[in-house]
Design brief:
The protein has one domain: Ribonucleoside hydrolase-like (Inosine-uridine Nucleoside N-ribohydrolase, Chain A), CATH 3.90.245.10. The protein contains 12 helices and 12 strands. About 50% of the residues are buried. Bound molecules: alpha-D-ribofuranose (RIB) and calcium ion. Alpha-D-ribofuranose (RIB) binds next to helix 1, helix 7 and helix 11.
Length: about 300
């Protein structure tokens, strides 16, 4: 049975792949975007085109926050390009100011969202605002899977992960107030790398394969070797989708988390001090890499428009 999911994201090239996979691995009840890899106007326009190309024109697309709660917007142009999708440039969209933002939309539709899995692959600003404005929303989601940070104390190739570093206050609020939160950090996301040699499989997948191939040409040049495999590159947000549709390929541990909000360690995920009551977060501590790759390419075969050459 396919899980019902809501994607809160900042497309972003790995967000784009995550959305394309969620399109055939789950039932997408809606997509919201947040400023992160690119501006809100870019991430919103990017999500709209990705949904159209993947046949999701009727999926609700709702805008979120223009930037982090308290820190200036930090975009990731080096990995995702100025518009957010590498050389696949799409004009940004002016978002009508009267359009409801996603935290209001979630509150107005909370009944129908029950049993939906929220997957966050950008900064956690939208979710933090929703919890501050409508605390009962923390009980509607079947789970809240966040791509960000790292298992406290884990050896990782990066000291700060982009999503949690961009909005550390939002991440700390989600770990404090959110129940049924699970975390996919770079300690596992940077193990589940995509092999460069596998990108040839995208040919024969029509417009989706062509578009994704162009984006990954840009992204792989910049991310190749992240996580330590010189033949591969991480697609962090895709791992967050796998965590919801294929949780058994991960190993998990429960612990209360907090986030360092200021100073040289800003964005570091730490064990919450025991004197502060927080719900435990389910943190991914390991992943079966072969099982992840098998799931991913079997899922992508749904886009194959030509029969597999034997
Ligand atoms: O650190 C990886 C995360 O930051 C991913 O979500 C990527 O899209 C960027 O937003
Ligand atoms: Ca992202």
């Amino acid at each position: 049975m396919k899980p019902r999911v809501w994607l809160d994201m900042d497309p972003g090239i790995d967000d784009a792949w995550a959305l394309l996979l969620a399109m055939n691995q789950s039932i997408i009840t809606g997509v919201s975007t947040v400023a992160g890899n690119a501006s809100l106007e870019n991430t919103y326009a990017n999500a709209r085109q990705l949904l159209e190309i993947a046949g999701g024109q009727d999926v609700p697309l709702i805008p979120g926050a223009l930037g982090p709660l308290l820190t200036p917007l930090v975009r990731a142009e080096e990995f995702h390009g100025q518009g957010g999708l590498g050389e696949w440039s799409i004009p940004s969209e002016v978002i009508p100011p009267e359009l409801p933002r996603v935290w209001s939309w979630w509150s107005m539709h909370s009944e129908e969202l029950k049993s939906t899995h929220l997957i966050a692959t950008g900064p956690l600003t939208n979710i933090a605002i929703s919890l501050l404005a409508y605390p009962l929303l923390s009980n509607i989601w079947a789970s809240v899977t966040c791509m960000g940070g790292a298992l406290p104390g884990a050896q990782t190739d990066k000291a700060q992960e982009f999503n949690v570093y961009s909005d550390p206050h939002a991440a700390d609020i989600v770990f404090h107030w959110g129940t049924r939160v699970q975390l996919i950090g770079i300690n596992v996301a940077h193990k589940a790398v995509i092999l460069l040699e596998d990108l040839d499989r995208l040919s024969g997948m029509g417009q989706v394969g062509h578009m994704l191939g162009k984006m990954l040409q840009f992204y792989s040049k910049r991310a190749l070797g992240e996580g330590g495999n010189p033949e591969g590159f991480p697609v962090d947000d895709v791992v967050a989708v796998a965590a919801v549709v294929k949780p058994s390929i991960f190993q998990w541990r429960e612990m209360p988390l907090a986030v360092v909000r200021e100073g040289p360690l800003r964005g570091t995920v730490v064990l919450s001090p025991i004197d502060v009551r927080r719900p435990s977060v389910r943190v991914a501590v390991d992943v079966d890499i072969a099982a992840f790759r098998k799931w991913l390419w079997e899922a992508m075969d749904h886009y194959r428009s030509e029969p597999l050459k034997n």
